[in-house]
Design a protein that fits this description.
The protein is of the alpha/beta class. Helix content is about 35%, strand content about 15%. The protein has a domain at about 15-65 and about 100-159: DsrEFH-like (Hypothetical Protein Ychn, Chain: A), CATH 3.40.1260.10. The protein is globular, with a radius of gyration of 17 Å. The two termini are about 25 Å apart.
Length: about 160
Amino acid sequence: MSTHGAEPITKVSIVVSHGSLEGVYPGLIMANGARMEGMEASLFFTFFGLDAIMEKRMDRLKVATVGNPGMHMPTILGALPGMSAFATSMMQKEMEKLDIPPVREFLEMINDAGGEIYACKASVDMFHLAKKDFCPQVKDIISVGQFYEKSAGGQIIFT
C-alpha cells in the first residue's frame, strides 16, 4: 500500500471508552505519539473511560481479566479472586521496564505537550459527575457535537 501523494495526518482525536488499563493506555500512547510527531491531539473520555481521568479512580485502574480474549485464559480463571490484581501488577511491571508512565503522569505529559483532554457530557451527566471529580488536565466537559467540531479536519480514532 503506497502513501505516495497522500495527505499527512496532522490532527487526531482519540475516543477512550474503556476504564481498564488495557483500554486506556492505547489512547494515551497514541495521543503522546501524535504530539511527539507534531500533530494536534485530543482525547475524549466517555462511558467507563472516564475512570482514567477521575481523581478518585485514575490511580487504581485494573486489567480486565473476565471476558478479555487478550488474556488467553478461560473466563473462570479470570474470575478467580486476586486474578485482576495479579494481572494488573504484572502489566505495570512490564510497563515500568519500558518507561511507560502511570496514567496520571501520562495525562500530565500529554497536557503539558499541548494535547487536549475532554470528558463526554452525556457520560458525565449519566454518572452524576462534575468538573471537580476530574483531574486538572481535563480542559472541559463537552458534548459529542462539540467533540466533532473540535475534530474537524482530523482523524478520529476509537481505542
